[in-house]
Design brief:
The protein has 452 residues and is of the alpha/beta class. It contains eleven helices and eleven strands. Strands 2, 4, 5, 6, 7, 8, 9, 10 and 11 form a nine-stranded mixed sheet that branches. Strands 1-3 form a two-stranded parallel sheet. This is Phosphoglycerate mutase-like protein.
Length: 452
């Protein structure tokens, strides 16, 4: 079974290399001011430039660190494909991903190198191919559009409105772009860059670079590949979540088992509850009809609580150190360089393309997680401000258009008077230092760090 958007009357729109239009019902962002229940409407919320809260007088923005989840994608596995759910096994939503140029390149006035004549395709197990078919977990045309829009919103905010960056990128030393080594995050970052600095705003010889780390060095997510101890910690949390929440999911069996080959939905089931909801979320985001039970807020909330606990509820200090400690240390170190060097450090914006697990873990590590699964293209920003009058630098964390008051900065003297969301850099650094592994290899050994 394949699925193609109902608004397409013929395949020419998806085949066209010149088309960048995405229909309105694909970009259902919800009401301004916050997401609505994703049980019935996707929670994607665009970066709100108009209502961005400018910092109090006397603060000047010096640097911003952005962590953005990849855009809308296909499910990472085939689930609910048979009757009566009938969510498609094959998704024909990747026309843009089959050509070697950005989604809205036709709007650029710059003459670029000739596009490669090579065309990608997906081959099925029987050897057949269908044009515009997506791989599992692939960024769709909708995802490419929303991530491009996110880059454009960054431009409107940090270039047009706040003037942090110049209109034309004069030097790549002013920006930093990094992604995990996955196609969907890499393509997301390519689109974000094209929205932030399209080719027409990059003079000859100025080419933004996308950085990728080897797997053993990756810190844009909890790296269980190079940290066996973290893998064991996460396995323990998954097992604990199954023990705690499987009984709460049993009452849903009479409603959901018909969609799961007669099986009940369980944290550790086949398919896992997280996998079922991954498919449902992807379908809803793309306007694909899902069974009515998966639009029932009571059912969705019960499953989401279990999945959130399995994936994102690590509140142990050890899990936080090994999961997000190195990433926060990277952030703190680069902010420290900006504080010490001032204008001689040209770096002003750092954009990282990552995953839902990273956004949730960052929020959880700093005790501001909202217990909701991060939406596609959700983002966290850390903004560094200097005081015009001199003195303590200030950091503000924002998530999905909201300021976050960090508990670590709640005490008097650790935040800007009258503004708890503006944390002193010293208080922020102090907590990051506590979270930074001092001996990564030793702490990642299966037995963990030795205690004395």
């Amino acid at each position: 079974m394949s699925w193609i958007p109902s608004w397409v009357s013929d395949s020419s729109l998806l085949r066209s290399a010149e088309s960048s239009a995405v229909p309105d019902h694909w970009i259902n962002m919800g009401a301004r001011g916050g997401p609505v229940s994703w049980g019935t409407t996707p929670p994607q919320v665009p970066l709100d430039v108009e209502n961005y809260p400018v910092a109090p007088e006397g603060l000047e923005l010096q640097q911003v660190h952005v962590y953005v989840r990849h855009g809308e994608r296909t499910p990472v596995g085939v689930r609910l494909a048979g009757p009566p759910a009938n969510i498609p096994e094959h998704w024909l939503m990747c026309a843009a991903g089959r050509r070697a140029r950005p989604l809205d390149l036709e709007n650029s006035q710059v003459q670029l190198e000739k596009v490669s004549h090579v065309h990608k395709g997906v081959e099925r197990s029987d050897g057949s191919t269908i044009e515009n078919q997506c791989l599992l977990g692939e960024l769709t045309d909708l995802g490419r559009q929303t991530t491009l829009n996110y880059g454009k919103a960054l431009r409107k905010l940090y270039i047009d409105r706040l003037g942090l960056l110049p209109e034309k990128l004069g030097s790549t030393s002013e920006v930093y772009f990094r992604t995990t080594n996955m196609a969907r995050t890499t393509e997301t970052l390519q689109n974000v860059i094209h929205g932030l600095y399209p080719a027409s705003n990059c003079p000859s010889g100025v080419h933004p670079t996308i950085l990728i780390r080897n797997g053993k060095d990756e810190n844009l997510l909890g790296n269980t590949y190079s940290c066996k101890r973290l893998e064991l910690i996460q396995l323990g949390f998954a097992q604990a979540a199954a023990a705690a929440y499987n009984p709460t999911l049993e009452p849903l069996d009479n409603k959901l088992s018909k969609y799961l080959n007669g099986n009940g939905i369980r944290v550790d089931g086949k398919p896992r509850a997280s996998g079922v909801m991954d498919t449902v979320r992807a379908a809803i985001a793309h306007g694909v009809k899902v069974p009515p039970e998966f639009e029932d807020p009571a059912i969705v909330d019960a499953i989401e609580r279990a999945v959130i606990t399995e994936w994102f509820q690590d509140k142990t200090e050890e899990g936080r150190r090994l999961g997000m400690g190195r990433l926060l240390e990277d952030l703190s170190r680069k902010m420290q360089s900006k504080v010490e060097r001032g204008s001689t450090d040209p770096l002003k914006m750092l954009v990282h393309s990552t995953h839902d697990t990273a956004l949730a873990a960052l929020c959880q590590t700093l005790d501001v997680f909202d217990n909701k699964w991060p939406a596609f293209t959700a983002s966290i920003t850390f903004e560094l401000f200097s005081k015009v009058s001199g003195g303590e630098p200030i950091v503000r964390m924002r998530y999905q258009n909201k300021n976050l008051a960090l508990p670590i900065c709640a005490e008097p003297g650790k935040h800007l008077d009258g503004h708890p969301e503006f944390c002193t850099f010293s208080a922020f650094k102090e907590r990051v230092k506590e979270l930074t592994p001092t001996d990564w290899e030793a702490e990642c050994a299966p037995s963990g760090r030795a205690t004395t």
